[in-house]
Amino acid sequence: MIQNQEEVLPLVEASQEKTISIVQLIMDGGTGGQIIMGILFVLLVVAVYIYIERFLAIKAANKVDKNFMNQIREQISAGNIEAAKMLCTKVDLPVANLVQKGISRIGKPLEDINTAIENAGKLEIYKLEKNVSVLATISGAAPMIGFLGTVIGMIVSIHEIANAGGQIDIKMLSDGLYTAMTTTVGGLIVGIISYIAYNHLVVRTDKVIYHMEATSVEFLDLLNEPV
Q: DSSP string spanning 157-180?
């Protein structure tokens, strides 16, 4: 029994020696790998920040009271145009901003009102999509930067082989191989996260745009109702 334990202990110690952390892998990758991983880390931080900031902004923009248009209808039907404007100002959401723009044009031809609402809608969409395109850029650039690290790592390995003088040792190639593998994995991880975050924000933005369009149509129909 004691002999078995003595045989097992070296195996356990060997397995523990082979265990290596992610940080150690990055550090063993050499200067080139560390620079590439540093760039990828910065891109990841930027992507996460943009996603959280835009997610909260889009979520807030989609919180519209279901009775909002009913209140607007009551105020306009009663001729309280200023009260309707104040209601839109109080709500201060993209949908309310469109309605407020339309209310400010009441008395002009319906086509002019529609054009004003469309122009205001373009501005609101631009605000909602602010910096979202950066996520798309990161999702495409991060894997490419990772592959750049792969090429750098392979160049380092080939350089070591050329200078080995016929005596190739795997330890000579370790820096280049670490750089090649860690940067590739890092670039793909950052790219995947950014890609998913981008598409999620696009879906949520489309929902807000749909509500804006539906509200605009409802407001125009309100103006067409007989007095």
A: HHHHHHTSTT---HHHHHHHHHHH
Instruction: Find the helix or strand (DSSP H, E) in which 134 lies.
Output: helix 132-162
- The pLDDT of residue 155: 77
Rounded to the nearest 10°, the torsion over CA 177, 181, 186, 191 is 130
Residue owning tokens 């835009």: 54
**Which tokens is 18 given?**
């082979």
Question: CA–CA separation, 79 vs 81, rounded Å?
Answer: 6
- Residue among 99, 102, 124, 134 nearest 205 (CA): 124
The whole-angstrom separation of Cα 43 and Cα 140 is 11
DSSP string, 80-129: -HHHHHHHHHHH-SHHHHHHHHHHHTBTB-HHHHHHHHHHHHHHHHHHHT
pLDDT tens by residue, 208-227: 999 888 888 888 888 776 55
pLDDT digits 0-9 by tens, 159-217: 766 676 656 666 656 666 777 778 888 899 999 999 999 999 999 999 999 988 888 88
